[in-house]
Design brief:
The complex is a heterodimer of chains A (492) and B (516). With 492 residues, chain A is mostly helical. Chain A has one domain. Chain A has 21 helices and two strands. In chain A, strands 1-2 form a two-stranded antiparallel ribbon. In chain A, a hairpin with a 4-residue loop joins strand 1 and strand 2. In chain A, helix 3 runs antiparallel to helix 4 and helix 6 packs antiparallel against helix 7. Chain A is globular and about 70 Å long. Chain B is mainly alpha-helical. Chain B has a domain of 237 residues. A two-stranded antiparallel sheet of chain B has the order 1-2. In chain B, strand 1 and strand 2 form a beta hairpin. Chain B is globular. The chains are: A mainly alpha (492), B mainly alpha (516). At the A-B interface, helix 17, helix 18 and helix 20 of A face helix 5, helix 6 and helix 7 of B.
């Protein structure tokens, strides 16, 4: 009883800090004028750091906590992903600083929306209940719709935001419909409770299968899995580039966190049914994303399709889940988490470099990168490193991300899926190398200097160091991911 | 002494990496300082590797099949991968050769780096490459091996793509994607071994023991071998996976070609000897006949292609296909003789073909063309010493007895006459003997195209326009960087025990699984 009425404020401290920060940011911006409006960025960063401090304190404390009748749980998995989202937030803030201070308008609104979105992302890994998951997902998405449309003067931004909005709303409706059917069958919204209920039902009824499909489709839009991906390239292209970075990492990450919890816990009893579906989705997603990325001439669209490809790799472990096979499930679960962490490092890094170049070349065309190696060796080296890492070359973090996916596929004996990842890695390398080639082999088309500024340079350097450090000593990641206990706890 | 024994290899392998970092830190205005720094670093590397060779050779505890300078510490605990490095007689010649060639390349680089120059970047890449190459030969953990294996891709990609010839971009991407394609399949096969082993280990020594005990038998062993085969065969390259090689070797800058031919190709054949054969004896036996056939196809095909080349450098590049065919034929016999011949062939090919690429690079630098027709013969007249060196090395390459190229080929053919008992039992004796005969015909073709090349390039009367140019003959720096290779060409030919002595005990030990 007391678990419902009394609230463990310590468990909620990171989220509460973020709520307070977002409000402070919104208010403070009103009282700042002109150039000074950019100060909201460091304020937001301080708030994120404080929240991160609370997450660390909770991790040191070590006890599993909960609130609101265990709808909101703080365990090691939740803390890991919270720390991940907060670090992502920090780096998105770094890459946003210069972009938005030169953008002039909407700074307060942008940072408020960004922080709100991240609150949603932080709630997601703690959510152990359909309602919480739905709330968290909405909290991530709705500010995203607005942020994608912040470049009001640009028709493409309007188009992208509208597409994102319509499809986002549609998918969430479908998802909610699916969840409500499951609730009707099992009488609970608690994830573990749903799993028990489904086990009691046994052989799945057609309507339950339909609801599984709805949930898959709903999350499919969120993580931009093919064939539910088509909003992503347009939205990324239209959105301010830091927002594209946010959408491709944090928003997608929140989607994957939700998907992990629902699929690995609540729907685990029917894994035989949905596992193969995810296998097909994974292969479709990675193949389609990579093949279309080959054709792109706009770097943001290229990264958008590349991120679809990476979503495909992250879907592979879902296809391996089998109810009760704790060992395989654990490896698969950890593989997704590791991939998410690694992908964030590489992708935010790549977007940071794109933002740096876009200051001088707003068209974002691949030709702008010709001869970048001579014009701005630092930026070119950074982008090379991130792209090569996305392609999965050692000794960089991207290799290990793929390695753990292979590892999971191999442990389950899913050789066809492993082969699909292999072939796609090579296809992907082709277009990553095309950019590298343009940067280092081609003659510069213009001589305008690239000046990233301090915040961007710091973000690029820190992420590059992280990519190399984890690449050389992957235990840094692997150990972190092993603390996730979600799967073990849910096993029957 | 304990410190030296446990860390000598790590120091030697990572020294070039440190050197690359130091060179990268040199400020742009004193860019030329990169050349002497690279020279010092690679000289230190060479001395260290020779130190390892000497300590190992004179060590009283040295015995067949035992690893020296072993260091095995946990690295990725999550998957049980270790940082396991060591060296034995199979690795030793290739390990030292990689340091020798890199050192000679940095001597050569004092004088000559292709357009657009930029020695700082070029030499950092070369040293980075050295770490990858050397690391491949001493890694005794599959994951570590894979890291080093892939590490060579990026520097070589940039070497070809930035400093290469007219079709450099195409060649660089082709090289990169071909190798990557093979190596990812190899990685999946490694993971398959890891799970099938039952011991969840990537350790090559442990996997070899499990393999000898028949752990990876049947269909699994064949499939795993196929995955590994794809990775190594593309790197070697075996026919029909060779198409990246002529492009990459031809377009690469001289130093890139030397290292590609001298060391990078050997990573593939070394992989067969170290990993594919010992861990998967059954798979190897199943695939050995196919490998032998592909090997002789490569010998004949490479020779015929060489006959048709009009580009001097491309001719040398294609000759590698044939030479690596002999190496693969030796490996396919699954006998100690064959493996010894293969390792000898690797070293000889590294020395001779590395040398050929040096000479061709220097000729191209003077003539500004690689087309045989444009050179028009008479190199012996325009540059007598250069012509003489080219003649000497070409004759070594065609396998003249008394020079290095001879032993690898003759012992590979000899081994094909008498392949492993298991292959004979399976009824493949005739096939291998046919391969031997065809391979022997290949040596004649090889002699044919090299002599034909010499006739068109070095002999005859030089065209007037070249005589008027007064082309400078071999420079002091060129002599310095080539002399060790020329001496080795002769030395290995006269005293083949220089290599066989190092390799034989360990080869016999590693091939024990096939001898019974």
């Amino acid at each position: 009883m007391d678990s419902v009425t009394t609230i463990d404020y310590f468990a909620l401290a990171p989220e509460l800090t973020m709520v307070a920060t977002s409000l402070v940011v919104l208010l403070v911006e009103l009282f700042l004028s002109g150039e000074r409006k950019r100060w909201v960025n460091p304020i937001a960063a301080i708030g994120v750091l404080v929240a991160l401090g609370f997450v660390v304190a909770l991790a040191v404390d070590g006890t599993s906590r909960g609130a609101f009748g265990q709808m909101f749980v703080v365990d090691s998995y939740a803390l890991l992903l919270k720390a991940f989202f907060l670090l992502t937030a920090l780096f998105v803030l770094f890459v946003s600083y210069r972009y938005f201070s030169e953008f002039r308008t909407y700074q307060g609104e942008y940072y408020f929306l960004l922080l709100s979105s991240f609150i949603g992302a932080m709630l997601m890994p703690s959510a152990r209940d359909f309602v919480m998951i739905f709330l968290a997902l909405e909290l991530v998405s709705v500010p995203g719709f607005v942020m994608a449309g912040l470049r009001k003067f640009d028709l493409r931004s309007n188009e992208g935001a509208l597409k994102f909005f319509l499809i986002g709303v549609l998918s969430v409706t479908v998802l909610l419909f699916g969840l409500s059917i499951v609730y009707g069958f099992t009488g609970t919204t608690d994830l573990a409770g749903v799993a028990e209920g489904l086990r009691a039902i046994g052989e799945p009824e057609p309507l339950l299968l339909a609801s599984l499909l709805f949930v898959t489709v709903g999350f499919g839009f969120k993580v931009s899995a093919v064939p539910f991906h088509f909003w992503a390239p347009d939205t990324y292209e239209g959105a301010p580039i830091p927002v594209a970075a946010f959408l491709s990492v944090a928003s997608k990450g929140a989607g994957f966190a939700g998907l992990l919890q629902i699929m690995f816990v609540a729907f685990a009893p029917y894994a035989e049914v949905w596992g193969p579906v995810f296998g097909v989705l994974a292969v479709l997603t990675m193949t389609f994303g990579n093949l279309v990325a080959l054709q792109q001439r706009n770097i943001v669209r290229l990264l958008a399709y590349s991120s679809i490809g990476h979503a495909g790799y992250m879907l592979v472990p879902f296809a391996l889940v089998r109810d009760g096979l704790t060992e395989v499930n654990d490896i698969a679960f950890a593989a997704v988490v590791i991939y998410l962490l690694a992908y964030a490092v590489m992708n935010i890094g790549a977007f940071a470099c794109v933002i740096a170049v876009a200051r001088t070349h707003p068209t974002r065309d691949l030709n702008d990168y010709a001869g970048l190696g001579r014009r701005s060796p630092g930026t070119a080296l950074g982008l090379t490193l991130f792209l090569v890492s996305l392609g999965g070359l050692p000794p960089l973090v991207g290799l290990w991300a793929k390695f753990f996916i292979f590892n999971a596929a191999a442990s389950a004996g899913a050789w066809a899926l492993a082969a699909a990842v292999v072939i796609n890695s090579v296809i992907a390398m082709f277009y990553y190398l095309a950019i590298v080639r343009t940067m280092w082999f081609d003659a510069p088309a213009s001589t305008a200097a690239i000046r990233p500024g301090f915040a961007l340079s710091f973000a690029m350097t820190a992420l590059a160091v992280a990519a190399v450090a984890v690449g050389v000593y992957p235990d840094l990641f692997a150990d972190v991911a092993r603390v996730s206990t979600l799967v073990g706890a849910a096993a029957p | 002494m304990d410190f030296w024994n446990s860390s000598a290899i790590s120091i030697t392998v990572f020294l070039p990496l440190v050197g690359a970092a130091i060179i990268a830190l040199i400020p742009k205005r004193s860019e030329e300082a990169a050349r002497p720094v690279a020279l010092v670093v690679s000289l230190l590397g060479l001395l260290l590797s020779l130190g390892i060779l000497a300590t190992w050779w004179f060590s009283p505890e040295r015995q067949a099949g035992a690893l020296a300078f072993e260091l095995n510490v946990p690295w990725i605990t999550a998957i049980g991968a270790n940082y396991h490095v060591a060296i034995d007689g199979i690795s030793m010649p290739l390990f030292v050769l990689s340091y020798l060639l890199t050192f000679l390349c940095s001597v050569y680089a004092l004088q000559h780096i292709e357009e657009p120059g930029r020695p700082k970047v070029f030499l950092s890449l070369m040293l980075l490459l050295q770490t990858g190459m050397a690391g491949t030969f001493i890694a005794f953990d599959l994951v570590l091996f894979f890291i080093f294996w892939e590490l060579v891709l990026v520097p070589m990609y940039f070497m070809i793509g930035v400093w290469g010839g007219p079709r450099r971009e195409y060649a660089a991407v082709k090289f990169f994607l071909y190798t990557l394609f093979g190596s990812v399949f190899m990685l999946v096969a490694f993971l398959a071994l890891y799970f099938q082993s039952g011991a969840q280990t990537f350790d090559i020594v442990e996997l070899t023991e499990l393999g000898a005990a028949g752990r990876f038998a049947g269909t699994f062993g064949r499939l795993a071998f196929l995955g590994i085969f794809l990775g190594f065969a593309i790197k070697v390259p075996m026919w029909p996976f060779h198409t990246w090689l002529p492009d990459a070797h031809t377009e690469a800058p001289t130093i890139g070609s030397v290292l590609l031919a001298g060391i990078l190709l050997k990573m593939g054949t070394y992989g067969f000897v170290r990993i594919a054969l010992p861990i998967l004896p059954e798979g190897s036996q199943a695939f050995a006949p196919l490998m032998a056939v592909l090997a002789v196809v490569a010998i004949i095909y490479g020779a015929l292609c060489c006959m048709a080349q009009t580009d001097l450098k491309r001719l040398i590049a294609f000759s590698s296909v044939g030479h690596m065919g002999f190496v693969m034929l030796g490996i396919a016999t699954l006998t100690p003789t064959g493996i010894n011949a293969a390792i000898f062939g690797m070293v000889a090919h590294g020395v001779i073909t590395g040398m050929l690429f040096f000479v061709v690079g220097s000729i191209k630098e003077r003539y500004h063309t690689r087309a045989i027709a444009d050179i028009g013969g008479g190199v012996l007249q325009t540059m007598p010493r250069m012509g003489a060196i080219l003649t000497f090395v070409a004759i070594a390459s065609l396998g003249l007895p008394g020079l290095a190229g001879f032993w690898g080929e003759v012992f590979a053919l000899l081994a094909a006459f008498n392949p492993a008992p298991a292959l004979v039992d399976a009824g493949y004796l005739t096939l291998f003997r046919v391969c031997m005969v065809v391979g022997a015909v290949g040596t004649v073709l090889t002699a044919g195209y090299f002599l034909y090349m010499l006739q068109r390039v070095t002999m005859g009367t030089a065209p007037e326009r070249w005589k008027e140019h007064h082309l400078p003959d071999v420079s002091a720096i060129e002599v310095t960087s080539w002399a060790p290779l020329l001496l080795l060409t002769l030395g290995l030919g006269v005293i083949p025990a220089l290599v066989f002595g190092l390799t034989n005990p360990d080869v016999v030990a590693i091939m024990a699984a096939f001898s019974g």
